[in-house]
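Holo prediction — NDP.
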Amino acid sequence: SREIQLAARPTGLPGPETFRLAERELPPPSQGEVLVQIRWLSLDPYMRGRMHEGKSYVEPFRLNEALDGGVIAEVIESADPGFAPGDLALAHGPWGEYAVLKAAGLQKLPRGSRVPPQAFLSVLGMPGMTAWTGLNRIAAAKAGETIVVSSAAGAVGSLAAQLAREKGLRVIGVAGSPEKCAQAVADFGCDACLDHRGKEVKQLSKEIAEAAPHGVDIYFENVGGTTLQAVLPRMNNFGRIALCGAIAWYNDPSAAPPASHVWLPIIQKRLRVEGFIVSDHVAFRGDFLSEVVPLVEAGKILWHETVAEGLDAAPEAFVGLLEGRSRGKQLVRIR
Ligand code: NDP
């Protein structure tokens, strides 16, 4: 099977030297294992953090081994009574074409579902669960409030914005191009969406003030950078920040603003800031699905996919995700 390995730990943006395409012989599945063909691979910003050596909430990728992440896999050969060839499952697998996986780690996808299988990597998967968790369990969003969602045309942001609209909030998106902003308003439930690219903090902050005349009660934070600095002065006293991600700094932590630009407004406005990691909230996956699956099936929630074709396209697609070239969920269709 072909797979993509971590060839070197990057400093800054990953480049061609970060990745290596390699071939590997797979053993037949042992008892309790299945041989799968990977159909869809999920690319996610957190994978950039796993390229560092240091310990974090997920294990770092190992040098000269395949990168791994969320996949939709089709069972080809099964040595487990729970799975038969043809079954589709959500799994954790390599950036590769085939894999031998423990059956216990697979979640079989419902047969005959109206949503396509790869939706379980996006709107009904980890990014969707992240949006739901941040909005409900962290920010406790309520009707009538105003929320700013950054990366509003992204996998997490686009659902956070739509769920907020469903709840009756005023939703201000921030995204990285006129096209993304137009989509955030037309499809993703934003009342307004502001383009952050090439803008000074002051200008973006002024635009947020115009879009949120009563101030901002909740900030769904995905990016850090200029956007964070622009939102902070617009927060209402006792506002809440669901701190989900800070992608602007993943490749360049030194680009962060001085701590005083962040901490002082948080004190002055008595904000409640709570970081969260979606995997701590798995016990609520049933609540998430029972709320979001009917909305998706009824066509009330939209999602967008950017699909890279073939395993070889994964590294470039991953860099594109970090740089903002993807729209909605970045996937790789393996076959
Ligand atoms: P997205 O689909 O939102 O893709 C990433 C987007 O980030 C890009 O498209 C780009 O959008 C934006 N971006 C990149 N650089 C910058 C920058 N310098 N300033 C502002 N925006 C930038 O990814 P996901 O939806 O998968 O993830 C969104 C965030 O949520 C990430 O920070 C991720 O790490 C975090 N996350 C956290 C989880 C948790 O458990 N806490 C779980 C899952 C995700 P644009 O063109 O609009 O700028």
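READOUT: The longest strand covers residues 68-78.
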